[in-house]
Amino acid sequence: MAPLFETIKSFNDVPITSDGVETASFLEAMDGVLTMFDLFGSTVFGFVQSDIRGNISGVRARYQQARTDSETLEALVQCEATAGDKHKHGTACLVRLFRGLAFIQHSLQHMQNHPNEELHVCFRNAYEVTLKHHHAWVVRQVLHVAFRAVPHRRDFYGTISSGASPEKFDPEFGKWLDALEKIVKRMKGFLEGGGYGKV
Fold first, then answer.
1. Count: domains in the chain
2. Is the entire prediction scored with pTM above 0.85?
3. What is the annotated signal peptide range for this record (predicted)?
4. How many CB atoms lie within 10 A of CB 131?
């Protein structure tokens, strides 16, 4: 079996121009994120999968409604804002999706930067930085318990690398993480700077 990052669209392959992040390629890369978490079954990362899946659906629905005016994520948001839709469902889903992506990016980057820390520590630390301030006390407690159920680091790494050597897998994983970080930073700036929502 090939390593995960050889079989899914990488964020490294999502075009970013002066107009913004290409919507269709971004959504395809997001499907790859779901594929990654699907490798562990629905119970382990269910809280992440459910949130991401719902938000991808909302963004994809908005994209399909106005494809020619939504070629970039930025254009999708601006198109929805000028369409007069008071609910702006696609934009709300995009904001929540980027909150989740910031969490994933911080978690996995922490895992790469701290090779001796277990995954639940990486997730907990990333949660404190990215999502905690968006959640009520009850949700925080549920998630802290859920983090204890994530796989051990070696099992997670072994699954997403499909047994490939670190020399082969690490560079691809690094490129994926770097590109994800670039997209998250760009969209965070755009969404917050434009008053569309707080990531």
1. 1
2. yes
3. none
4. 18
